[in-house]
Design a protein that fits this description.
Helices cover about 85% and strands about 0% of the residues. The radius of gyration is 19 Å and the shape is globular. The longest helix is centred in the last third of the chain and has 30 residues, at about 135-165. It folds into three domains: about 1-70; about 80-130; about 135-198. It is mostly helical. The protein contains nine helices and no strands.
């Protein structure tokens, strides 16, 4: 039942984002790019909700069992407000920077604003890691290790290809995609390792 609850949390955040976009468009007369930002945030959460439906039944059952335990419940309770905070800080960061903040220190502070909820999410994940049993901790740490090594290798290979002028990727875009790639590869590795160990 836990993954279904997560899916509905994602749907609720997506609907809230779409509602903000609609209110911004028709009531507040926001510019198109601001409305588009909220539509994009909502679409991202909606896509995430859809991905929950693609997960195999055994994985959904495993997650339900894991997150029914006290450590899992605390982790879930900590995460969903952080996700809302991330969406709000991401919006605020982009919105203020696009308004042309002149002060470099203030612009730097606004640029890294979304890192705060991500750091809070990592803190919640570390608390969860300390509270789970040995086998689950092994699965988690191996998954984190696999994700870190693969993303580092990919980033290094991308840098070499960039220097050889085989590809041309904006460095800022590449840096932004490191964390989502880590999260995605971690999730895939965790599924594979869970199937192997359990």
């Amino acid at each position: 039942m836990t993954l279904r609850r997560w899916m509905w949390i994602f749907v609720a955040i997506a609907l809230g984002s779409f509602a903000l976009a609609g209110a911004g468009r028709w009531l507040l007369q926001w510019p198109d790019e601001t409305v588009g930002l909220w539509v994009g945030i909502g679409a991202g959460y909606l896509l995430g909700a859809g991905l929950f439906l693609l997960m195999p039944r055994w994985w959904r059952q495993h997650c339900d069992d894991m997150y029914a335990q006290p450590a899992g419940r605390r982790y879930i309770r900590a995460l969903w407000p952080i996700m809302i905070g991330y969406s709000l800080t991401l919006f605020a960061s982009i919105w203020f920077i696009k308004r042309g903040v002149e002060s470099v220190p203030l612009r730097a502070l606004l640029a890294v604003l979304p890192v705060i909820p991500l750091a809070m999410m990592m803190g919640a994940a570390l608390r969860y890691l300390r509270e789970i049993d040995e086998l689950q901790r092994r699965i988690e740490t191996e998954s984190i290790g696999i994700a870190s090594l693969l993303v580092s290798l990919l980033y290094f290979a991308g840098g070499l290809l960039q220097k050889a002028e085989v590809i041309d990727i904006d460095a800022g875009v590449a840096m932004i995609w490191v964390f989502p790639l880590l999260a995605a590869i971690y999730g895939i590795a965790k599924m594979r390792l869970t199937k192997r160990y359990l």
